[in-house]
Design goal:
The chain is mostly helical. It is built from 15 helices and two strands. A hairpin with a 2-residue loop joins strand 1 and strand 2. Helix 8 crosses helix 14, helix 9 packs antiparallel against helix 10 and helix 10 packs across helix 11.
């Protein structure tokens, strides 16, 4: 469903690119554990302490312990293509061995897909608009999502993480039924954490260094007549790249502060991460520590539930608000009517007593896709149907 709703907290404060969906990569995970995309082996990045990143490191000024010098010598160097990114991060106060270690995990060649996909989406919207449909879309909910079978999965998930949900509800006022429904729509309760095989750091870094048409040469042929619109590419690509840079900066800060492994960061097509699909820039603003360990890890159930609940509360969710107000708040998470409709409808089912097993079996009207992908709808970690279009062009960027 990531493809449709991956955008989680993509909304304010940053204004991201609209998202378009790709078939999500099914990741079989166990609640509360880490399991992610298999990526090529890279240099092990295990920061010694968070304090080490507080101050930029200048190799020409500060002395380096012999043991550290040896370790740095063994670490793969930052590839030339990432040097401009490293320099920009350094100008923003993010430099030193730990940052270099992160950048050294990136492949030597950027992926053209993140920027290419975004530009294709924008190009079609601007230069190849579809004629308005004569009939309004009939879908009120994402197909196969609002079912008793899925509601039962959500109830079981709440039961398995009872403390996390009860504490988040008490702290932020967001019902467990709504929180779990959002997690189901976003990532199938953590079972579908990525739209693409690349991790979040590589996805966003690739977009951040793609600033001119030659950087997406493989995608240009998909845009008929692109040669006539080169000024538009020259104007638009740097803006999208700058947006991606802000997300890279936020992600690097998050990785260093919360001591995360950059290789385990499966993400949406525009870099949204975690069970609740936050864009990196939203983690500092809305991320919440749900288990009291002093970190925010959105791949950990307590933190993901607390963070999405905090996001909704900060955007106006309060106990007793009307259905229309609830819908409005969910639209802030993902600018999509069908997205908000689906979450509220599934939450209603979750909140009801479970139907007898026999009746449930005989009353099934539709099964969710076995891979957790939701057909129909538009994904945009920008406008996810945007999702949080939760960013997604604008999602939290997760839109624009």
């Amino acid at each position: 469903m990531l493809m449709i709703a991956c955008g989680g907290a993509y909304t304010e404060p940053v204004s991201p690119p609209e998202q378009t969906g790709l078939a999500p990569v099914g990741l079989d995970t166990t609640a509360g554990t880490k399991a992610g995309v298999d990526l090529p082996a890279v240099a092990d990045v295990k920061p010694d302490s968070r304090a080490a990143s507080d101050k930029p490191f200048d190799p020409g000024y500060q002395s380096v312990p012999a043991a550290q010098s040896q370790a740095d010598a063994l670490r793969p160097p930052v590839a030339p293509v990432w040097q401009p990114l490293a320099q920009r991060l350094a100008a923003d106060g993010l430099s030193g061995p730990r940052v270099d270690a992160l950048l050294s995990t990136l492949a030597p060649t950027p992926s053209q897909s993140p920027m290419g996909r975004k530009m294709l989406e924008l190009y079609k919207s601007r230069f190849m608009p579809r004629p308005p449909s004569a009939t309004p879309p009939a879908d009120k909910y994402y197909k196969g999502v609002v079912t008793e079978q899925n509601a039962r999965l959500c109830r079981d998930f709440i039961a398995n993480h009872k403390l996390a949900f009860s504490q988040a509800q008490a702290r932020f006022g967001v019902p467990s039924s709504v929180a779990v429904a959002l997690l189901f729509v976003e990532t199938r309760l953590g079972k579908v954490l990525a739209d693409v095989p690349e991790n979040a750091l590589f996805t966003l870094a690739s977009m951040a260094v793609s600033r001119q048409p030659d950087d997406i040469s493989q995608w240009l042929p998909r845009m008929p007549g692109y040669e006539e619109h080169m000024p538009w590419f020259d104007e638009t690509m740097p803006k999208r790249a700058d947006w991606a840079y802000k997300e890279v900066r936020a992600l690097v800060t998050h990785i260093l502060q919360d001591d995360l492994d950059p290789r385990y960061l499966p993400s949406s097509i525009y870099g949204a991460v975690g069970l609740c699909q936050f864009m990196p820039s939203n983690i500092a603003a809305y991320g919440a520590d749900g288990d009291g360990d002093g970190k925010v890890d959105l791949f950990h159930v307590p933190d993901a539930v607390a963070s999405l609940s905090n996001y909704l509360a900060r955007h106006g969710w309060k106990p007793g608000i009307s259905r229309a107000q609830q819908h409005k708040v969910l639209m802030a998470y993902n600018k999509s009517v069908i997205y908000a409709n689906t979450i509220l409808a599934l939450a209603d089912l979750v909140a009801k007593p479970a139907a007898p097993a026999k009746a449930v079996e005989s009353g099934k009207s539709g099964k969710a896709d076995p891979k957790g992908k939701v057909p129909g709808g538009k994904a945009g970690q920008g406008e996810k149907n945007t999702p949080k279009g939760k960013a997604s062009s604008s999602s939290s960027q997760p839109h624009n």
